[in-house]
Amino acid sequence: MTETPSASPRVVDARWLQTSRLLKATVILSVVILAVLLAALLHPDSLPHNQEAFGAIANKLGVPLWAFVTAIVGVAWLPLPFAFWHLNRIVFRGASEGGSISRFGLVKAVFTVPSHHPDLRVSRLIVLFILGGYIVALFTYAYIADERDFQRKQSEAQGEQRGK
To answer: How many CB atoms lie within 10 A of CB 80?
Structure first.
């Protein structure tokens, strides 16, 4: 028989276990991070990079660049609210037991709280898999973009040397 969250002897503040609080936090976190990401990607300073990365495809499809970038981000964003739901389940369970919600507290909760609550072990795997995948994708994208930039600068330098 599994224990319910409110029946846990460790619970100090049961308000953290309310489903409505979990839902609100997940929606707010998802919307705020998506809005910040879109604001950064659709900022005029990002236009040259977006044009280089997505311009050819957007032109072939006959879609404005801003709409194409928004659609790509929206599709890539879909798994994140699911990960945030599970992250909040873990963090809120830890907070209900007196844990911290600081940056370190979030990381600590992901690795320690599911050890005491078997019902959160799958949530930990989901969080680590989805967020870890995004982190790997971001580093891969940054590496590829840097490599392309390096190759472009190298070919420009070779072209200048040939022209002399």
So the answer is: 18
Q: Report pTM.
A: 0.74
Give a three-class secondary structure readout of 95-139.
HHCCCCCCHHHHHHHHHHHHHHCHHHHHHHHHHHHHHHHHHHHHH
How wide is the angle at C-alpha 88 spanned by C-alphas 84 and 79, nearest 5°?
Answer: 15
Type of residue numbered 14: A
Quote the CA–CA distance of 91 and 107 in Å, as a whole number.
9
Q: Read off the amino acid at residue 78.
A: L
The DSSP call for residue 140 is H
Per-residue pLDDT for the chain (164 aa), expressed as one digit of tens each?
Answer: 344 455 566 767 777 878 889 999 999 999 999 999 899 988 999 888 888 888 888 899 999 999 998 998 888 888 999 999 999 999 998 888 887 777 888 888 888 888 888 899 999 999 999 988 988 988 887 787 778 777 878 888 787 777 66
By C-alpha distance, which of 25, 9, 20, 24 is closest to 96? 9
Long-range interactions of 135-144: CB distance < 8 A, separation 24+:
none
CA distance 56 to 149: 18
Q: What is the DSSP letter of 71?
A: H
